[in-house]
User: Fold these one by one.
Assistant:
Number 1:
Amino acid sequence: MADTPFAPVILGDEPGSFPHSVLAERHPAIIRQVRDAFPYGPGQHRALDELLKSCAEGAVEPLPADAPDGDRWQEWGLADCAGHSWYDVPWLWSESYFYRRLLEAVGWFGPGAWQGIDPFRPFKRAELDAPETDAELAALDALPGLPEQERARALLHGSLWGNRADLGFRLSAEGAEAQDPVPALVADDSADLWSLLPPDGGATVVLVADNAGRELVPDLLLIAHLLAEGRAARAVLHVKPYPYYVSDATTADVVDALHRLRAAPGAAGEYARVLWSATADGRLAVRAHPFSCAPLPYERMPDDLRAEFAAATLTVFKGDLNYRRLVGDRRWPPTTPFQEPTAYFPGPVAALRTLKSEVITGLSAATEAALVAAEGHRWRTGGTHALIQVALK
Ligand SMILES: O=P(O)(O)OC[C@@]1(O)O[C@H](CO)[C@@H](O)[C@@H]1O
């Protein structure tokens, strides 16, 4: 990191900026949607009112004394942030704490009848059950006739562009899905990615998942392909231990996605059978590590997670939030080589991400200039551009 220029941590304190709008507009909208989606009781409504008020004008408050994860949040910086405005602490931290507080407000942590009831489930289910998902699954029937490399590329790009399926993003970026994606990637290290995963190479691949539904389904299809072709002997899918950033995948969402695939006709059903037997014999494992919901960059990951990533042939981070956590949620000069902020990572690492926040590294000067000339600042957050970046060790 010695040559890396100083890059300030992103805060949400600048009115008119994207991070500010997430705190000031997206979070209240999410509270409204969750409140409308469930027959919550007066206690839950009161707690949601208090959270809304706190987000709008208040300071970050400590967790209740009996919170099951109180010690963990102390380690994750709660003592430093408590008492400060939501807008003045690192944006990554305040966003993550918002979801923690929202879950508490609706009773997720229990005890009681609402313990473990995912407040985002109706939105995730609606997407999984949508006709668009049927169309995407039917399109898989075109794959079996293609050479393996073409199938691999199609499934890698399916997983990459699946990252546009982000329900939190859609709440505040009106019409975002309607805007066409820009097919040319702003960075494409896919040749390096495939060099780590040759057919019958026996690799271990860790995929750190992002959204459920229409992102998780293509992630699972990619994993099925890697396993079926021997590009991976073993895969580990990391999901969130609790509902997060609206649509982030939990174990329950993996089960839903696998059922959806298993019920589909044609090639989709075949992929489901590969995945189902791989979970049964241990070639595919699902992990829900507490650090997956930490409000911190991966540079501060605990030792057990570091050891797991170190043992993998390749770790793939999906999505925008994971990218922010992988490189650090900072205002990097866009031409900072991806290898620099990820130098701490204990093994080969890849990012598959559509651009939905201001953090970006690894662009060529020409690419950055062309994006700025065409779109001003919008290319950073509009969700229409994508990248595949790899840091080999
Ligand atoms: O991680 P994902 O699903 O690709 O995107 C998450 C996201 O919608 O949430 C953050 C803002 O709340 C941004 O990083 C990004 O826009």
Number 2:
Amino acid sequence: MTQQSRGSGPALQVQGLCKAFGPVQAAADVSLCVQAGETLALLGPSGCGKSTVLRGVAGLERLDSGRVEVGGRDVSSLPPEARHVGLVFQDYALFPHLSVLGNVSYGPRMRGARRPAAQARAREALALVDLSALEARRPAQLSGGQQQRVALARAVATGSPLLLLDEPLSNLDERLRAQLRTDLHALFARIGAGVLLVTHDQREALALAHRVAVMRAGRIVQQGTAAEVFARPATAWVASFLGHTNVLGGQNGMARLIPESAIRLGQGDCCRVTARQVTELGETVTVRHPLGALTLHLSARERALAQSHMLQLELDLAQVLTLPDDRESPPSVFREPS
Ligand SMILES: Nc1ncnc2c1ncn2[C@@H]1O[C@H](COP(=O)(O)OP(=O)(O)OP(=O)(O)O)[C@@H](O)[C@H]1O
């Protein structure tokens, strides 16, 4: 099943989206673009405004300003049902009284398809998420992961050129998340729709998205491919948020990012180990280095290199990045009183 393409533009284009709730500027001048067949992850900590952007795109939130185009069509002033987007929210919001098939064919029915055509489309979508065998069940008779897949099938069955997913894996346990991450990756590749995925989970973004837009306090602070943003974070805050362990404070408002790949063990200077903690995968140690305190996650094999008080390591200084240190004073989410 491939999604309908409407017009010739990208799947989604957002320009200058702004939304305030009283004094809180939840989204401030957000612009982004999702091409057909591309997945963009909107990634940021809780409360940074990700859902506000998604809801603004879906038409569920009245915007203060900004323009939203879906498949080249300006939908800024249209109600949600006229925007033609497929939505998947944290709580799947399935209709409890309808069967799986009824839930998934509901979208096409609402868009005017006759029952046989709507059901055929729903069955295609259910096959994509591997749920054909369960089409007669009610949502209450499904596991959490299965309900999640029904919600995805329902969004896919709309045939929309754009899917909006808000933390789609958040209610699932770790094993199911890993499984669905793989399934989603394959599904997105097959259907060819543009996907805007909201998540606070860096691993989810890196696993699923072609590009990521990192959000902080209502603003997008960096956009790029997942690999680019991880390898070259724009600021110390972005680096820390993405999970880099060694972002050392420096002078003049600058910080140093020491990527894991810059640290070679078993050669170079002997550094004093100041703390060590056994983890499920090995051990985390902190060592005193001339540049500052470095934290290293050692595998079970590497643990053998760390003697009781010393660890020999060398830094490849060419890989060390100097970044503006914006961690201490996050930009305010509150608007200046006018
Ligand atoms: N209806 C509302 N009324 C008042 N404030 C709101 C409303 N919706 C969101 N906010 C505020 O706007 C800011 C952004 O919220 P939003 O839900 O977009 O963040 P988020 O990044 O999606 O967070 P999370 O990851 O926790 O879902 C927060 O400070 C939030 O408290």
Number 3:
Amino acid sequence: MKKHILVVPGDGIGAEVTTVGKQVLEAIAQKFGHEFTYDEALIGHVAIEATGSALPDETLTKMQAADAVLFGAVGHPKYDNDPSAKVRPEQGLLKMRKELGLYANLRPIKLFDELLDASSIKPEILRGADILFFRELTGDVYFGKRERIDEGNTAYDTMIYSKYEVERIVRKAFEAARTRSKKLCSVDKANVLESSRLWREVVQAIAPDYPDVTVEHQFIDAAAMLLIKDPKRFDVVVTGNLFGDILTDEASQIAGSMGMLASASVGDSTGVYEPIHGSAHDITGKGVANPLASILSVALLLEISFGLKEEAQMVIDAVDAALKAGFRTRDIANTNTPSDKILGTDAMGSQILQYLNS
Ligand SMILES: NC(=O)c1ccc[n+]([C@@H]2O[C@H](COP(=O)([O-])OP(=O)(O)OC[C@H]3O[C@@H](n4cnc5c(N)ncnc54)[C@H](O)[C@@H]3O)[C@@H](O)[C@H]2O)c1
Ligand SMILES: CC(C)[C@H](C(=O)O)[C@@H](O)C(=O)O
Ligand SMILES: [Mg+2]
């Protein structure tokens, strides 16, 4: 199979982990006789420094032309601590999502058995947890009108959803629920927010089209609590942009670390595959970032954009094998397990490549 992949490392550890992700893609291409070609483009802080824009036109054009995008992360402390900055790295990410029509963000929360002890949650609560989040990605308070008024002393952001935006993500979630345990949980704040009441109304209206799927509704505050109390009660979860952002960072603790969670952003055009984590300034340049989220994003890319199921499974098996052999990056190491072999980013990548090349 011939495919063209755009690698967009972005900022901080984004560059460190996508380097490994790209090596994994190439190892798969070699093993299975595919021909993958690659190009790179700028986004985020590095793009602002080079061009003044967080998403240069050239990057967007390359994204639109690619068969898939492997993305790193954006962000820089300079902007995090300067709320007045007008041009910000995160604008590049949001514009990319909007321009490419990436309205569905799939965030699988898969706990590898070997990491049962890496989480701060008790193993008996965690064992068997397997959740697939559908986070809506191009609407909500992220894209609603916002403004400073009252001479800058008051600010507002608008939480806004249209029926069609809710319907298309909810249908995707129902379809996925059909292929899993036929349970769908929709998360909103319909006891307070009008946009959530619309959300719930749409879910209720669509549900009869999927009579084989059991639907439950949870308020976001209760969902956040239940996720930690009893993660196994969830299977497919569908929610809005902001609630999905927060819940999935929380859910990363079910999988052991932010460094384990991959995601796929799909919709109207080229799919973008990226870890859910950010540029992690605190560990940038130290060579300790966990590359497994990027590697697992490669598995999603192979399966979803290219339909290469066997190849995707091999990447997951490689991660499993490395974990079974006791290899850990710092974030998933357990201080009570002296047999853990702690590796840096590249060395963990090498373990995965070794498995794929064997
Ligand atoms: N998709 C994205 O590009 C994205 C996502 C989240 C945050 N951000 C941006 O990243 C910057 C930092 O944000 P933050 O600190 O809130 O979130 P973060 O996800 O970058 O980091 C949160 C914590 O998780 C750890 N962590 C994250 N990824 C890791 C990995 N692969 N291996 C080991 N540890 C890992 C970090 O060291 C940090 O302690 C901000 O500028 C933010 O806007 C970008
Ligand atoms: C960096 C930020 C804009 C982004 C989001 O909030 O969507 C990030 O947290 C994510 O989860 O991809
Ligand atoms: Mg986030």
Number 4:
Amino acid sequence: MKRMNRLETFKALTRDIDGINKSLIALGFFKVWSLIFGLIPLFLYSFLVNRVLVDKNMNELSPVIIGYLAVFLFATIGITVSKRFSNRLILKYDLRIKNKLLKKYTSLDHDVYSKYSIGDVKSRIESDSTVADNFFTTHILDFIYGVVYAVALAVILLCYDWRIALLSFIFVPISFLTVNFLGGKSKKAKGELWKLQTKYETFLHSNIQNWKDVKINNLEDAQLDELNGHYKKIRPIWFRSQLYSHLGITYSFFTKNFITQLFIYFIGGLFVINGYSQVGVLLVFISFYGQFFGNIENISNSLINFKNDSVNIEKVVEILNLEVGKRPYKKIDGTDINVENLKFTYEGNDSFALEGISFSVSKGEHLAIVGKSGSGKSTIAKLLTGKIKPQGGIVRIGGIDIYTVNSESLSEKVSIVVQEPVLFNMTIRENLLLAKADATDAELIECCRRASIYDFIETLQNKLDTIIGEKGVKLSGGQRQRLSIARAFIQDRDIIIFDESTSALDNENENDIITELKSLSSGKTMISIAHRLSTILDCDKVMVLKDGAMVAFDTHENLRNRNETYDLLFQNQYVAGGYVVVKNTEDIKPLVVGS
Ligand SMILES: Nc1ncnc2c1ncn2[C@@H]1O[C@H](COP(=O)(O)OP(=O)(O)OP(=O)(O)O)[C@@H](O)[C@H]1O
């Protein structure tokens, strides 16, 4: 991809953001103000040296002092006001870009999320807006100011003594080359450091999130060893990156304060001795040159930093440029599901997670999907809800190809209840209302009853208004599942997919909910990814998956004792799962301890 320059990047990052240009003009005005009042002291200094000191004209000392005081006053006003404007501008930009990113992220299709590893939207917006803000302040505002200031100083230097100026400009390319060289080395070290730190932070994050499991499994020492391993790898690279950055600082200090000054003293001295210049001119020149060279260094650093930062900046631009709503909204009327020759491979995997899957589920039917762990059951659920897009094949609901319509069209038709439901740190009521904003209390209570969670809610002090903590942490796994099933009942979609959504329930609760599901199923199409095979006996059809392929699709009666994979699943579960092994499925019952 072609690298974008600053202007192109600026346009891309400020597109459709109103009110930025006006603030930029106001800021530009006060920046020029500060620049002018930053230059005047140099002229006053020149006046002081040449007219007052060299010409021994003490009468002109007081105008110089008054001039200095006036400039100080105006410069302070300029700096204060431009600071206020730049803070306002940056804040305004930060809010607008966050808003734009939020709108973009919430309207993107599901498959974009996995493609761009968007993950946690909140932290993604934070880091993207930081990248954009940083570009705006350092690579636009500071850079432009630095360039304008350096050009103004270069012109003044040339006007002052063009011969010394031209000779001293030799340090400009040297500075650019050196900063470029050290910057390149530092960038490489920082790149390595970033990779190692990302791994370390991921490790730390998962450790903190799962600290209970770490403690329960007595893994503290092993985790500490791993932490030390991360440190050992990070340490040398960190030292290397620090070394280059300190070399840069030392180089800058040395050239600015020693080499360039020595050079100008020497060359200037020769000019003065030979009568081409005067001591006063030289002193003023050195003072101007110090500022000029400082700016040149800032510009070289900014060029390098822009190169380093552009990888992240372009990622943000790419996200902002992503086409939203490419697929149109279309009302899906029918409820039949028709799947033809579905193929899907996860990014980075060599083998298919699913291949050659074809099946149909008619309106009102209940399909169970069974198979060993990793056989592809959840992948089918993700494909049917449009969360991922297949590399081959087609899924039609009500005759409409679901990958040609937007996610809104699909979510009106299909709801999914998953093993680990998404619950928010809000009240039970608010979590339920996410499914249907205008649901009445009577509706909420009815659905909670059907999901066997209402008795529990009744025991809580604040009933439906109880806050359930982050990710529903104040609830048990089974309670979280029942709440999410209640949410699906409230949503009342025509197609409901249950992806191991009763796995954390005890048999009694599971049976209650299954009974509810059955009563609910009239006219609805249901797909259950079964956790316990005892729950699928009444399903109209059973799909048996093995290593991503569909090995059978029939009724339970037809599969039992006839399909090897299905039989094996049955046997394994009822022996390992604490059930008595039976000849006839009607006899399946949990093994009661002590019986
Ligand atoms: N996000 C992912 N990235 C890469 N590979 C994945 C991803 N999700 C699943 N897979 C792989 O795809 C295959 C099918 O996974 P899937 O989750 O559909 O299986 P499953 O039958 O639902 O398993 P389980 O019963 O354990 O939940 C597995 O081999 C799995 O490793």
